[in-house]
Amino acid sequence: MAKTLRRLAKFIGLGVAAAAIGLMTTPVSSASDVTPFIVGGTRASISEAPWTVYLASSSGSQFCGGTLVKANKVVTAAHCVAGRSASSTRVVIGREDKQSTAGTVATVSGIWSHPSYRTATSGYDVAVLTLGTSVSGTYLPLATPSDTALYAAGTNAVAYGWGATCSGCSTSRYLLKVTVPVTSDATCKTAYSQYSNTSMVCAGVPAGGKDTCQGDSGGPLVAGGKLIGATSWGNGCALPNYPGVYARVAAYYSVLSAQIG
Predict the structure, then answer these.
(1) Out of 61, 170, 199, 217, which one is annotated catalytic?
(2) Which whole number is the average pLDDT over 133-159?
(3) Could you tell me where the beta strands, DSSP code E, fall in the chain?
(4) Phi-psi region of 39 (alpha: psi -120 to 50; beta: other; left: phi over 0)
(5) Confidence tier at 18 by pLDDT (50, 70, 90)
C-alpha cells in the first residue's frame, strides 16, 4: 500500500460555495457526504471549531485544511502549499457547508514553509499562511514543548476536515470530525519506518476505521484545547494498524511562533 498524503489533488466538483468566490461548481449529493463521514467520524459544527478553515484554489476548489492561530495567520501542512503561489490560494473561514456562502474568503499575501521540508514522510511538514486581511474570530493556541501530556499514548484527540470519507472517495461537503487516541512512538514506528518522534505524532485505533483522509491535509488535530498536530500522511486511510501521521506542532513551536508573531 502506497504512502498517502492527506491532500486531494482532484479539484473537479468539490462543492465549494461558488457565490463567495465568484464561480459555479458542481453540486454534491448531500446523502453521499453525510455518511460515512471523515472516516468513522461525525458531522461537526463550525461553532465548536471556529478556527478550522479550508484552503481553496483561486477558482474555488478546496484541497486542504488549516487552523486559524491569529487574526491573519493559518497553520497548515507544507505539502499542501508546495509549488503554490500566494495569489492562487484562498482561505475560507467560518464555513461549515462548502456549498453555503457563510463566513469569509480571505486572500493570501504570503506563504512560509519550513525550510527543511522536502517530503511529508521526511518531516518538517508545516507551513504558515499570512492572510491578506485580518479576520475576527477565535484562534487556537499552539501546543508547546511543555505539553508532553497531550502527546502521551491514549490521549484522545479530535481531527477536523472536509476530506474524503474513504480512500479514493470524493471530499465532504460538510465539516467533519473524528476522535482518535494518540498512539505510542513504538506503535507508530512499527507501522512506519519513516516515523520520527521529533517531528511527527500518530493517532488512530488498532482496528482501523477512524482516520483522516485525502483532503484533510493541513487540518487540525486538537487535544487539551491546543493544536497538537497538522494532518500530514499515512498508509491509505483508516487501515488496521496504520494510524494517521500528523506534524508534531510542539516540535515546531519556536519556528511557528516566530512566523505567527
Answers:
(1) 217
(2) 97
(3) 3-5, 42-43, 52-57, 62-70, 73-76, 89-93, 104-113, 127-131, 156-161, 176-181, 200-203, 220-223, 226-235, 244-248
(4) beta
(5) very low
- What letter does residue 140 receive in the DSSP assignment? P
Q: Which residues, listed in sequence order, are joined to residue 130 by a DSSP beta bridge? A: 73, 110
Question: Which pLDDT belongs to residue 184?
Answer: 97
Residue in 217, 102, 198 with CA at minimum distance from that of residue 159: 217
Active-site position among 79, 170, 172, 216: 79
Active site residue 185: no
The amino acid that residue 57 corresponds to is: S
Rg of the chain over Cα atoms, rounded to whole angstroms, equals: 16
Catalytic position from the list 33, 125, 211, 216: 125
Q: Does domain 148-251 sit in CATH 2.40.50.140?
A: no
3-state secondary structure of 251: helix
| pLDDT tens per residue, range 114-136 | 999 999 999 999 999 999 999 99
Query: pTM score > 0.90 for this model?
Result: no
Task: Indicate the domain borders of the chain.
Answer: 148-251
Is there a catalytic annotation at residue 114? no
